[in-house]
Amino acid sequence: MLWLDCPHCGRRPLDEFSFGGERRSVPDSITDADERDFDEVWVFENPDGLTTERWFHAAGCRRWLTVRRDTAIDQVVDVVP
Amino acid sequence: MPALDRLRGVRVVADPVAVDRATFHGDDVTVLRFAPDDAFGLGAGGVDVDDPDAIVEDERGFVGAWLDPAGIELHTEWPLPTERPALAQGSIAGVPAKLWLPVDGDALVLTAAAYGDELETRLGWRS
Amino acid sequence: MTDRSATVAAGDGGRLVVDGRPVAFRPGDSVAVAMLREGLVPGRGGTICLAGDCGNCLAQVDGVAYVRTCQTAARAGLSVVGHPSEGLPDLPVVRATAATSSPLAREIEVARREVDVAIVGGGSAGLEAAETAERSGRTVLVLDAGAGDEVVAIYAGPMLVVRTRAGMLHVHAHEIVVATGAAEIHPVAPGSGLRGLVTARAAERLQAAGVSLGAAVAVGTPPEGVAATPASGRPVRFEGKEGRVRAVVTVDAASGAETTTPADTVVLGLGCAPRDLLARMAGEVPLSVVGAAAEEAPLPPPPTEGVVCPCMGTTVADLEAAWDKGFQELELLKRSSQACLGTCQGGACLSHVRSWIAARTGEVPAPFTARPASRQITLAEAAADAYVDAFRRTPLHDEHLALGARMDRFGNWWRPWHYGDPIAEYWAVREGVSLGDVSTLGKLVVSGPDVVEALERLYPCHVADIKPGRSRYALLLNERGHVMDDGMILRESETRFVLSFTSGGAANAEMWVRDWIETWGLRVHVLDRTMSLGAINVTGPLAGELLRRAGLADQPRFLGHVHADIAEVPSHVMRLSFTGEAAFELHHPVDRSVELWRALMDLGADLGIRPHGLQALFGLRLEKGHVIVGMDTELDTTPRRIGLDWAVRMEKPAFIGRAALERTAKLDDHRRWMGFTMDGVAPTEGSPIWADGEIVGNVTGSWTSPLLGKALVLGWQRRTPVRDRVEIDGREAAVSPTPFYDPEGHRARA
């Protein structure tokens, strides 16, 4: 099981957290406002590699963490405060 | 067998700096810092906090028991903190709970009253 | 764990019970060795390795099947029952437990360790690695199966799951060293399933344990210190009688001549294969393999006849059949022929299968990825660290039980389903006064200079114009314009609000609110009061009278709310309605719920007060056509589809979901949630809704209305234009406007 370093509570197993989805970003190449909205809501990055995602420490402080994870090896790179 | 009893105190959510400097009213108050902006003054009757929008509430939602923390460690997947004092928060026996470890003496295990029966059962405190 | 001298746990000397017969053992014996000394052979036959590498010595030990007897220390009184010669061993008898939220029995203790380096294997390579790591100042844990610490799985983390004599051990390591050595190769030839075949190392161990091998014949590399007649050449056949070996037939590689050598025991020194299963389980964790486990040993010659995989009974002919069907790759061949799928995950057969493939393709395939667990563990051992969900209890839980409630689980809470007579509970609400426990509703306090700005962005309704002391019904939408939850926005002051949410949606709603406020960087404090406040819904035409008796003289108008003492309990009194009748929700400190509930029950005794459970509540709301988000809605439900467009103010410049709703507003709506009426009793929830011989929707809620005398249905119709008449449960149903009851809402406002 993966462990996350909660900045408030310390290192805890993943099942104490709820997944909040990936932090998506809209490519600069999309300039139309409507298309940017669409991309933001519907298009996931789902990279084979570094991804930034949100996790909520449901069993602890009940605050959000932003986690960078390498999906290729399923390892947490760091927790961004 | 230990038993979880109702805890009374004051909960304050405010700017972290204001929480740092908050003064809880009462002779024997233990301040449990749940998050930078969130503290529970266990045993407090009120609080002075320098934030006009602070949320200050009588907090009756927790139950707790004082005990030797060694018995709790069997039920956590994470190691207990080694420094004292410390507040540990996370799953204890699969229940969202917290553990207050003072400088010396017994520790306080606490959880929301809604989870009290479940936690007591899982810790083997009731049949 | 660091006691590296013991091989198998020191037995105390005594007797096992094997198939009902006492079997004496000596200190240090494993179950397998004790049985062999008595002339009994554990398992169904085949080569015995005494190293835990194969499944040839499995038996049922103390009620648990598939136990490797060679890895099980003999203990006085231990019960060993052989697996049946055909079919599967019996399942153990499990104690019946009540279906409650109580945890699984935690009879197996889970210990946890955190170390810098975990070393799997206590042989010379493992100990060398341990010394090196210790010298560099790192903490080291050596886990040796022979000393009773069997590593059964390695997961990401990395985390090792270890079965120990005391229970289970979960080790969090920064680095793992696999030093598990090499396993001896089993023979593949006709007769390889006979009893009386042992590996060279097993023969040495048996000799040391004082077990007689009878007339032993050694094939291949002979064992050290064991008297055995050498038989030259490769074993091609084992001959036997009544399941026991009598002779081995070897063939000389040069001449091709066969030699038959009579034997009581055939000792096989056929070489070794790396025992690297755990290394292949670990994926991308920091792991190194040392010693014999890291050495690519020569493969055995490709098998030509006989059983390749003793666990699954896969023969060379089976491999050929699978290969001819096109499964010409190790992973595919494994799945289709079942070779390597047994309890040892290829411990006995992988090198043979690789060799067999190499002979066909000219390339030696890499070993496959291994999966946890590498050893048979019991469900109890696997679940020793797992808990079922913790269900919450409201402060009135015991009160409900005392009133005879049947409790059920909803939205992670125990809630009263009914108190014995849901129809009487229904009438108490419609005609008198009733109490409902709504402590489970989500309750969030938000406060701060930017609070109005935050709520205007979060909600699709207007917020700024809600006056202190007033409230508004609100939907919570996601960015796709889909309904996530609903509840009330109650304004307490210019900069402070209380938000309520559904019982099941409260946790997500809190996450949602916190996420956005943080993302926007707005100055808003958030406090979840869901479990700190109890809430009692006082509802019915006599609710106002009851609250007057309880001390509430100035009663708030519909959608108003005040702070007042009710029966001396400080309460936040909210005037709203889900039941269709006048209703006051009393939110109060959770330690005073019982006191408040009892006072209200006493004060309302002569009004015929009784509590209502969820069953009555669902009927009451159904007559009002109120949606229950999550029960009636789907993941892609827009407000328009459930007739709640009025709760969305598109004239607002921005709110979450607005852009999506604007886009979808241009599209046709292909499904709608609506009301239906029909004669007779209500159809089952979930029933399909038919039209023109097609399923056009489903029932999300239904109720045989005692007041209206017919069945009321809420459900989906997935087509446009919608039909006025449909068929449900084989009966005709007519589309009906909602609410079915009091459409003008006079009663809720009364």
Specify Rg of chain C, calculated over alpha carbons.
36 Å
Give the terminus-to-terminus CA distance of chain B: 11 Å
Question: Quick one: CATH superfamily of the largest domain in chain C?
Answer: Probable tRNA modification gtpase trme, domain 1
Compute the average pLDDT of chain C: 92
Biggest chain-to-chain interface with counts: B-C, 36 and 42 residues
Helix share bin of chain C: 10-25%
What's the oligomerization state?
heterotrimer
Written as H for each helix and E for each strand, in order along the chain, the element string of chain B is EHEEEEEHEEEH
Could you give the distance between the termini of chain C? 74 Å
Which regions of chain C are unreliable across 5 or more consecutive residues at pLDDT < 50?
A: 1-11, 95-106
Secondary structural class of chain B: mainly beta
CA-based shape of chain B: globular
Task: Give a description of the structure.
The complex is a heterotrimer of chains A (81), B (127) and C (750). Chain A is mainly beta and 81 residues long. Chain A has one helix at 33-42; strands spanning 3-6, 10-13, 18-22, 50-56, 64-70, 75-80. In chain A, the strands form 2 sheets. A 4-stranded antiparallel β-sheet of chain A has the order 3-4-5-6, with no helix packed on it. Chain A has a two-stranded antiparallel sheet with strand order 1-2. Chain A is elongated. Chain A starts with a strand and ends with a strand. Chain B has 127 residues and is mainly beta. Chain B has one domain (5-122). Chain B has helices spanning 16-21, 70-73, 116-122; strands at residues 5-13, 23-25, 30-35, 38-42, 46-48, 55-67, 86-92, 95-101, 107-112. Chain B has a 7-stranded antiparallel β-sheet. In chain B, strands 2-5 form a two-stranded antiparallel sheet. The model of chain B has no long low-confidence stretch (mean pLDDT 95). In chain C, α9 (422-431) packs across α14. Residues 1-11 and 95-106 of chain C have low confidence and may be disordered. Chain C is α+β, with helices and mostly antiparallel strands and 750 residues long. The chains are: A mainly beta (81), B mainly beta (127), C alpha+beta (750). The B-C interface holds B 6, 8, 11, 13-15, 37-38, 52-55, 57-61, 74, 77, 79, 91, 93-96, 112-119, 121-122, 124 and C 101-103, 106, 109-112, 114, 170, 385-395, 397, 413, 445, 447-449, 451, 495-496, 523, 525-527, 529, 531-533, 589-592.
